[in-house]
Design brief:
With 158 residues, this protein is mostly helical. It has helices at 7-13, 19-29, 36-50, 54-58, 61-76, 113-120, 124-157, and strands spanning 89-91, 96-98. The protein is built from seven helices and two strands; from the N terminus they run H-H-H-H-H-E-E-H-H.
């Protein structure tokens, strides 16, 4: 998904956010793909520090790295429909119509539980019980907080 915000404006605003948030936002909005490895590593490290259960006790940092990679991919919006940019509708100027490309889902193709579990090389039952919460609540929540830092920085700096 291409941003409507210029790269120069985003770089100016990024001076007011944390280092990790800046790396993620530079990856997402300024298309600095060299930041991806850094973002995935720090996301996995942050979640690993929070873990008290199964993953922390048995030390599965590589699983967290793979999960962080999936979370970053999802956060970047590469799964969004390119016709409606993930909104599910198109504004014609007179009225809004359902997107004909994604059938109003907003997704190019939705990654279901099975697809994510296969991508992570995990058992579907284990993913649904443990991994899904970890991926959606923890990792996607952290990426959303980075977006929140950006919006706060926009309010303060512009």
């Amino acid at each position: 998904m291409r941003s409507r915000i210029s790269a120069q404006t985003v770089c100016y605003v990024l001076a007011g956010v944390s280092k990790e948030a800046s790396s993620y936002l530079r990856l997402k909005y300024a298309l600095e793909y060299g930041q991806r490895r850094h973002v995935v590593y720090h996301l996995a490290k942050r979640v690993f520090k929070k873990q008290k259960g199964y993953l922390r006790a048995r030390g599965h940092p590589w699983l967290l790295m793979r999960m962080a990679d999936v979370a970053v991919e999802e956060g970047l919006g590469h799964g969004l429909c390119r016709t409606c940019n993930g909104k599910g509708w198109i504004d014609t100027g007179i009225k809004r119509i359902d997107c004909f490309s994604c059938h109003a889902t907003g997704a190019k193709h939705s990654l279901g539980d099975r697809e994510v579990a296969d991508k992570l090389h995990l058992d579907l039952g284990w993913y649904k019980k443990h991994g899904k919460k970890l991926l959606l609540n923890n990792m996607m929540g952290i990426l959303d907080s980075y977006e929140g830092e950006l919006y706060t920085a926009f309010k303060e700096r512009l």
